Amino acid sequence: MSTSSLIFASSLVLVAIFISYYQKLGIEKEIIIGTARAVLQLMIVGYILHYIFSASNAFFTLAMVAIMILVAGHNASKRGKEIPGIFYYVTFSIAVSAAVTLSLLVLFGNIKFEPQQVIPVSGMIIGNSMVASGLSVSRLKDEIKNRQEEIEAYLALGATSRQAAQKVIKMSIKTGMMPTVDSMKTLGIVQLPGMMTGLILGGVDPITAVKYQIMVTFMLASTVAISCFTVTFLTYRTFFTKQHQLRQAF
Amino acid sequence: MEIELKNISYFRDGKYILKNVYFKFEKNGIYTVVGPSGAGKSTMLKLINRLIEPTEGAIFINGVEYKNIDVILLRRKIGMVFQRPFLFEGTVKENIELGPSLRGEKNIDALFYLEAVGLSKDYLFKDVNNLSGGEAQRVSIARALANSPEVLLLDEPTSSLDPTSTSIIEELIKRLNREGIMVILVTHNMEQAKRIGDYTLFLYKGELIEARKTWEFFENPISEVSKLFLEGKLKEMIE
Ligand SMILES: Nc1ncnc2c1ncn2[C@@H]1O[C@H](COP(=O)(O)OP(=O)(O)O)[C@@H](O)[C@H]1O
Ligand SMILES: [Mg+2]
């Protein structure tokens, strides 16, 4: 694909702007800003990756992964701004899920520990982990708020915080995992995932592309499970006191 | 059991929801707690159940400051029933067994507690979604009883029930009290407070205005605010 054809493709954004204008959605500015940011960020990342790939240095690779985790943690923690320490809980959960999943993939020989493989795979893991843990946190927060009386009824019966929150914990983990589980069911039929599309467009044989995609599917299942589980268990505690009381501040 | 509220206050969002309340629940009777809505009645029950902490003052249970008592044990001994029954998905039996099962107890005689609230054994395996309001509230009382409490805190348990269910629950409360359970009942129904109370506490704007024998309070209220409240004229005083 030539750069000029990419520039022509940018006219597709004009379609979006036109619809926004025509339907008075009022999001023209956001579309323009969003597009500009995407182009700029991708270009910068392209050059950084180009550099890191050619340097092939383990430290750079891990530093890049760490930055991705921090940014993802920052972003996902917006879903629970009111919760003290939420950035740390979310970031930790994303880090754990990424570490476990990546280590297993390297251990099983699915990917090699080199930047060309580790960085894109981490990107997918961390991105999904970010979305999933953000969903879990926001559901947790909402359910605890809406079920305050029910949780207190539980506590009044002598339940511990953990017992009183059990139902909400379950819901919250499930909410974070559901989009991934749902998309697994229709994978390849309704959507060809980005990675597979990219590989096929790049000229890789579909069978090979599918193998990678299957690996990605497995890895995302584990990633979202670990991150939702971790973030929910870390976060629910902040809603309770040591004396098994629901904090009134929320 | 003896519960002493030693000058407790509960301060929140820049105002006193309860202010310097002193009272000792010492005799095994039925205490009815009345007052306009927003007076702090529910807050007082929650403090006694330690669902919240007083911001000032302390609570003593049989002479022991309640911070020195395991909170889970305290909540078992001082059961609480809410306005809405909040039964958990499942059968009546599962709900009654909940309290004891939370601490790993097995072989709970759910039928015993079901009969204690006047429901027959046919109810045991009923889904809680198929209960009437009155039945659900009785199951929630049975659920609290399964913890073998010495005190029951009841927060407007009949406020959404029909007269028949209400009188069934009132009879139940009286019987449980005769069997030795101290009852602290919050109610906005003055007739109910009068009918079943031995002692009545009147809260207004977070302050305990009067606490006396029920008949004395209703026959011969001392404070001006109490008089206005009983004449139904207090509403005009709320800004
Ligand atoms: N968690 C809370 N946050 C803020 N205000 C509260 C909270 N709980 C109770 N209040 C306020 O405290 C006052 C007393 O509430 P409550 O104890 O429920 O009164 P009552 O049961 O007598 O109607 C009310 O004005 C209520 O708005
Ligand atoms: Mg109330």
From TrEMBL, chain A:
Segments passing through the bilayer: 6-22, 58-74, 86-111, 117-137, 187-208, 214-236
Keyword Transmembrane: yes
Topological type in the membrane: Multi-pass membrane protein
Family matches, as InterPro entries: UPF0014_fam (IPR005226)
GO cellular component, one term: plasma membrane
Compartment(s): Membrane
Signal peptide: none
Pfam family, one: UPF0014
Name the record gives this protein: Putative ABC transport system permease protein
Family of the protein in this entry: Belongs to the UPF0014 family.
Keyword Membrane carried by entry: yes
Keywords assigned by UniProt, alphabetized: Membrane, Transmembrane, Transmembrane helix
Automatic annotation (TrEMBL), chain B:
Domain ABC transporter as annotated: residue spans: 3-230
Protein's UniProt name: Phosphate ABC transporter ATP-binding protein (PhoT family)
GO cellular component: membrane
Listed InterPro entries: AAA+_ATPase (IPR003593), ABC_transporter-like_ATP-bd (IPR003439), ABC_transporter-like_CS (IPR017871), P-loop_NTPase (IPR027417), PstB-like (IPR005670)
Stored PROSITE patterns: ABC_TRANSPORTER_1, ABC_TRANSPORTER_2
GO MF terms held by the record: ATP binding; ATP hydrolysis activity; phosphate transmembrane transporter activity
SUPFAM superfamilies registered for this protein in UniProt: P-loop containing nucleoside triphosphate hydrolases
Keywords: ATP-binding, Nucleotide-binding, Transport
GO annotation terms (biological process): phosphate ion transmembrane transport
SMART domains documented for this protein: AAA
